[in-house]
Each structure stands twice: as structure tokens, then as C-alpha cells.
Specification:
The chain is built from four helices and ten strands. With 204 residues, the chain is an alpha+beta fold. It has a domain at 26-153: 3-Layer(aba) Sandwich (Aminopeptidase), CATH 3.40.630.30. The protein has an eight-stranded mixed sheet, sandwiched between helices. Strands 1-2 form a two-stranded antiparallel sheet. Strand 7 (116-123), helix 3 and strand 8 form a beta-alpha-beta unit. Helix 1 crosses helix 2 (67-80). It is globular. The two termini are 29 Å apart. Bound molecules: coenzyme A. Residues 56, 59, 120-123, 128-134, 157, 161-164, 166-167, 170 line the site of coenzyme A. Coenzyme A (COA) binds at residues 56, 59, 120-123, 128-134, 157, 161-164, 166-167, 170.
Length: 204
């Protein structure tokens, strides 16, 4: 994927821009209750609160995190912000009223030629079932099909992860298939649902 950058208007060849932009104009994203923004070093405590929770990371390939692992993870997220071209955006989900980072949501450019990205999300358990992930994912997908000019957004999850595919279905993403024993998570093969939505289907 080298030679491509993702920014307003969709992925473009690097030849169209020789210098990184001063900032990503589509960030931060604000919704009624949330701010989706780049991580900061000061987010450590909030991130560790969810990353160390075995229930939160049950279906993730990482965790539960030690403080050291969360420090490494944050360091990678901060380093990623300086990447050019930047193909991955791991964003903090901040509660707008009190500034608490209640989770994360990510965007990964998987296929630049076909303007396709993958999204994923993870929330502190205290904030589950309040529509937070749906609100964050809806705003991120809107940015994908709005300022970022992308064609297709997909997400995957363990078939047992009702909460995760509940969010995808809330956004009217379509279940396109079930991949059988395609990934090993925490030492066990899992079955994976694939969900997707295209720009021409997105109603916002
Ligand atoms: C998956 C996760 C992000 C969902 O976050 P959330 O903010 O609770 O989700 P929402 O409140 O927006 O829920 C959207 C819909 O999903 C479904 N849903 C969410 N959590 C559910 C659960 N625990 N059980 C059954 N359905 C659930 C519901 O249909 C819900 O809509 P409704 O409340 O109107 O009925 C959260 O459970 C989480 O962080 N889990 C651990 C990390 C993880 O597995 N991430 C996904 C990896 S692929």
C-alpha cells in the first residue's frame, strides 16, 4: 500500500502530495455525546481501565493488558500519528462532557485501489449498552463516505460477539459471510462474521 495516502477526498497516490498536511481536517469527529480524536499520552489510565478487563478483550487478539502492554500500545498509537502516508487511525472515543476516554475505534485502509477500509471498536464495560459504539461507528462511517470519499467499509467479529455485530446491524451493514475457523484468538480457532456497507447504500 506504499505510495498512497488517505485524506479528505479519498486515498490518493502520494505523487499528488509530497508533503503531509498540517493536520487531518476530518478529525476530531464530534457527535452528540462523543469526540473521536487521536490518542494522547495522558489517556493511559482510561485505556488501561478497559484494556485490562478480561471481559472486554474476550474476542480480541490482544489483552488483557499489563500496564506495560498498554504503555507500548499507546506509544505505537502516538507514533502512528506521525506516519506518512498514514494508513491506520486508532482513535480515542472521548465522552464529551467529562473528557473520559471510554474506548477506541479504528480505521484501517485495507485496499487503497478499491477505497476499502476496515473498522473496529472496543469500549469500557461501564459504558456498554448505551448506544456509544453505534454513535461512534455511525460518525466514523459517515466520515468514510463523506470527507474521505471511500467506497466500502467492512468489519469482522467472532460469531459469538452479539454486541459487535449488533453495532454493525444498527448501522445497516450487511452480513456478507461467515468465515469458518479463519483466525486463532487466544489459542482457539474462531468463526468470523464479515459485515460491510458501500457508499451507495449509506443513508447516514
Ligand atoms: C461490542 C461493543 C463495542 C458494543 O458497544 P455498545 O456501545 O454496548 O453497543 P451499542 O449500545 O451501540 O449496541 C448496539 C446494538 O448491539 C446490540 N448489543 C450490544 N451489546 C449487546 C450485548 N451485550 N448483547 C446483545 N446485544 C447487544 C443491541 O442490538 C444494541 O442495540 P440496542 O441497545 O438498541 O438493542 C462492546 O460490547 C465492547 O466493547 N465489547 C468488547 C470489545 C469487542 O468485542 N469489540 C468488538 C471486536 S470485533
Amino acid at each position: 500500500m506504499a505510495g498512497v495516502f488517505i485524506s479528505a477526498g479519498g486515498p490518493k497516490p502520494l505523487t499528488e502530495m509530497t508533503m503531509p498536511p498540517a493536520s487531518d481536517p476530518w478529525l476530531p469527529i464530534r457527535t452528540e455525546r462523543l469526540v473521536l480524536r487521536d490518542f494522547r499520552a495522558g489517556d493511559f489510565r482510561d485505556v488501561q481501565a478497559y484494556a485490562a478487563d478480561p471481559e472486554v478483550v474476550r474476542f480480541m487478539h490482544w489483552g488483557p493488558n499489563t500496564p506495560e502492554e498498554t504503555r507500548d500500545h499507546l506509544a505505537r498509537a502516538l507514533a502512528q500519528q506521525a506516519d506518512w502516508p498514514r494508513l491506520e487511525f486508532g482513535l480515542a472515543i472521548e465522552h464529551a462532557t467529562d473528557g473520559v476516554v471510554v474506548g477506541s475505534i479504528g480505521l484501517h485502509l485495507r485496499d487503497a485501489a478499491n477505497r476499502t477500509v476496515e473498522i473496529g471498536y472496543c469500549l469500557n464495560r461501564d459504558y456498554w449498552r448505551r448506544g456509544v459504539a453505534s454513535e461512534a461507528a455511525r460518525a466514523l462511517v459517515a466520515a468514510c463516505f463523506g470527507p474521505l470519499g471511500l467506497h466500502r467499509v467492512f468489519a469482522t467479529c467472532d460469531v459469538r460477539n452479539t454486541g459487535s455485530f449488533g453495532v454493525m446491524e444498527k448501522l445497516d451493514m450487511r452480513r456478507e459471510g461467515c468465515l469458518l475457523r479463519d483466525r486463532q484468538i487466544k489459542g482457539e480457532w474462531r468463526d468470523t462474521y464479515l459485515y460491510a456497507i458501500r457508499a451507495d447504500e449509506w443513508a447516514g
